[in-house]
Amino acid sequence: MRVALSHQPPSNLQAAGPPIQYWQSNATNPCAAHPKWRPDSAVREKYDLTGRVVVVTGASSGIGRAVAAALEAEGATVLGTSRTPAHPLLRLDMADPASVASFAASVAAHPAVVARGGIDALVNNAGRTVLGSPGPPPSILNYTSWVDGLRAGIQTNYVGTVRVTNALWPLLESRSKHGGDGYARVVTTVSPLAWATGGGFEPYLFGYTASQRALLGYCNNLRAAATTVGSKVALSTLAPMATATALATGRRPIFLQPTTLGGDAAGDPAFQAFIDAYRAALTDGADPATIAAAYVQILKEDKPVANAAVGSPGVADTIAPQQASPPFASVLTAEALSVSAFVPVPPKPAVAIITGLPDKVAAGGDDGGGRRRLMSTLKDDAEGWVAHHRTPCTPLPLFYPTRPSKKEADPAFTANLTGMVAVVTGASGRKGVGGSLADALTAAGVTVIGTSRTPAAYAEDLPYDLTTLDMAHQASVDAFGVYLSTHPAVIARGGVDFAVLNAGRFALGSPGPPPLLDEGLYYESIDAALATNYLGPLRVVATVWPFLEARAAAAGSSGGGGGGPPPPPAGRLIFTASASAYATGGGDPLSYFYWAYAASKRASLSYYDALRE
């Protein structure tokens, strides 16, 4: 398959959305660290790879095997890995911390590494694709295996890569300090989907996209941190376009839906159509040997590129030699990636999915700006934060409210919410987005059911109910579902009109390098951020969805009481996102201290957008 590269998307994609708005690299763009094309004949290849020791994960097949072969042809000693290795590959299961520790010890004791005094480069290539529907929840037949699959995907592709990089970092630092030429490199394979939020792309890939977006943020933030502390280890990411690999063959993927032993969908024609199209796209993709040339060039570069992309020969044929960075968006929307063009589109759910992006919260302050923005998404009959144009980091948010002062003063703005029932998670007290929003909604005549991990800690007299919900634990979410089903207001209303998923946990700390880390606390914070900010909302959505569907079905398009303008439709699900979810990471020298939080929010944004699709 030849990937089209032009100033318009391929003709079969013209109906997919508004015209492409191409990548803009400037100081105000959160995606300014855009990828450059490799290989590029204009790049200066300074370093010889002869005699260097390179670790390549996922080297048993596909891109990893091709990269290993290409490096060996350059004279390098390659230590490759596989989950089920045959000699001479080393065993490595990225999702298993014990396997990572054992692998790192094997590398450190390898004769070539001992003789070399460390390793010259690490190619993080191992990973697994994750395939399955984001919902809505009624379509998820086995909820437990669905959540387990999402956890396994992000633990393998994101957390596993973090563990391997940290485990081998001392061997990289050793070579950079004592090797004579200061050479040490890390090149991490990321999917092109890492440059998208999930909206506008295939929803069945949302679990994979989430893990890849988290991984991209980590890599870019680790580069910023390493630079800040003066490390000579250079880090790059490389995004290969559709490549002829066995990534989706048989049972290799992590499936979120029931499948046969042969890896086909069990009783879901739409999912099977996607699987067939995805496998066909990979079968017709570029030769892995062609893709491997880009990895070799990055390892030879004088000043390695931060983020790179590599395409098929079809792409290379259309790029002028001097054009090192063509519009990346046109490739992202090309045939090789947009397999959804061949897949039947399922009917949209009755519940409207909105992603809110509140103002920054002042420490200890009343976040009125965030409250106003979320309030206006409830009033607006449109879907609020919609994809008003498509770029590689789509859908970019629209700012709400458009006229905050006027809407805040308009009595009809609050009158049309009278009589509704709402769930607001993370509503501890009256400070912060959740608390001030719950307070304002109560004043507008809404019965608010607020949640907190520790509601008893808030002794102030709140005008709304506050109950226990810890999104990181399934038992707490189950108990919250029982609480909703027995709540008098929910029973009288026949459901819940809207839910605002605002709860989350912040994680602060450096992504590395490892000498700065407390390993136990480090991985605990990563897991806590993912459990609360990514997997937690998935659990809560499954719990509140039936209550939202019940109100949407009962109310139709007229969900409230009171006078004034028509009320907004009942059945709305609103997520509080983070500005960091729209960034690729590493742009601000200090932003890397909240890298784990940002990674979890990038992952969750992929879920929200895919669920809306």
Quick take:
The protein is of the alpha/beta class and 613 residues long. It has 17 helices and 16 strands.
Can you characterise this structure?
There is one protein chain. The protein has 613 residues and is an alpha/beta fold. The chain is built from 17 helices and 16 strands. The strands form three sheets. It has an eight-stranded parallel beta sheet with strand order 1-10-8-7-5-2-3-4, sandwiched between helices. A six-stranded parallel beta sheet has the order 11-16-15-12-13-14, sandwiched between helices. The chain has a two-stranded parallel ribbon with strand order 6-9. α5 runs antiparallel to α17 (595-612), α10 (368-379) packs across α13 (432-443) and α14 runs parallel beside α16 (519-555). The radius of gyration is 25 Å and the shape is elongated. The two termini are 26 Å apart.
Q: What share of the residues does DSSP label as strand, in percent?
A: 5-15%
Low-confidence stretches: 1-32, 313-349, 357-373, 379-396, 398-414, 557-565
Can you tell me the overall shape?
A: elongated
Strand order of the largest sheet: 1-10-8-7-5-2-3-4
Helicity level: 25-40%
Overall SS class: alpha/beta
User: What is the alpha-carbon Rg in Å?
Assistant: 25 Å
Distance between the termini: 26 Å
Largest sheet: 8 strands, parallel
- Per DSSP E runs of 2 or more residues, the count of β-strands stands at 16
Number of alpha- plus pi-helical segments: 17
Mean pLDDT, all residues = 77
Show the helix and strand layout.
Layout: E1 36-37, E2 53-56, H1 62-73, E3 77-82, E4 90-91, H2 97-109, H3 111-116, E5 121-124, E6 130-131, H4 143-178, E7 185-189, H5 206-228, E8 234-240, E9 254-255, H6 269-283, H7 288-300, E10 307-310, H8 313-318, H9 328-332, E11 352-356, H10 368-379, H11 404-409, H12 411-415, E12 421-424, H13 432-443, E13 447-452, E14 465-468, H14 474-486, H15 488-493, E15 498-501, H16 519-555, E16 572-576, H17 595-612
Parallel strand pairs: 1-10, 2-3, 2-5, 3-4, 5-7, 6-9, 7-8, 8-10, 11-16, 12-13, 12-15, 13-14, 15-16
